Amino acid sequence: MRLGAYFAYAKKTFLGKSAYRFDHLMGILSTVLQFFIFYEIYRALYGTGKSVDGITMSMVTTNFVLSLGLSTIFSPNDYFLPGRIWDGSISTELLRPMSFKGRMIAENVGESFFNLIFKFIPVLLIAIFTTGMEKPAGALNMVLFVVSSILGYGVLFTISFLVQMTAFWLINIWSLITIKDVLVNVLSGKMIPLWFMPVWMLGVLKFTPFASIYFTPVEIYLGQLSGRETLIKCLVQIVWIVIIFLIGNVLWNKGQKKLVVQGG
Q1: pTM, to two decimals
Q2: Which of 5, 23, 165, 188 has the least C-beta neighbours within 10 A?
Q3: pLDDT at position 260, please?
Q4: Among 107, 69, 67, residue whose Cα is nearest residue 213
């Protein structure tokens, strides 16, 4: 019964997104424009060269197509909790006979499915027919790519969850969300493939969750990891999900005691 309620929220979000057709079309256009801007920039940088330090243009193209695509699908609502604290509706939300955190996940899953079908797939088809995007290294790589992408979403969602929990203490967390977005965009390989990062930077990134969001799935897709390395990196994703969620959950429990409703 309770799972059915979460499914209902996911379905409601999916249908709600479908109602805004103009917004949907603008979302596709925005993603396509980003895709072609990145593509032209890297094509200009490569010039007539086939590769840079062993990294081919097709690998770079595949990286930003998949990274931009995944970021289009997985876009947690960073204002889900803060918005309800600001308008005072959080007091009512906490009285519902269901988990607020579960509802947060359900609604985001509904939006993610919408983005997958109506944003990612159209852009992916455009990329396949207009660029030299590489095929997956194999059928198993494709399956593991999907698994790792879901885990990458888990990392991204828990980071968003952790940042949102600070809204119990801060009036406005816009600056924190902005910092989070910059870190994710730069350090996850979305804007700059991590192959081009300095060696020391790659060493630092191993101790952060950011590379687990987009770059790990891309590496698996391209077949750059051995079976053992793939397993280790997926385990690293799981560990980050658990660690970040537990920290966020501690803030959630403390925040409810600290909560002061300002709106309503």
Answers
A1: 0.90
A2: 23
A3: 63
A4: 67
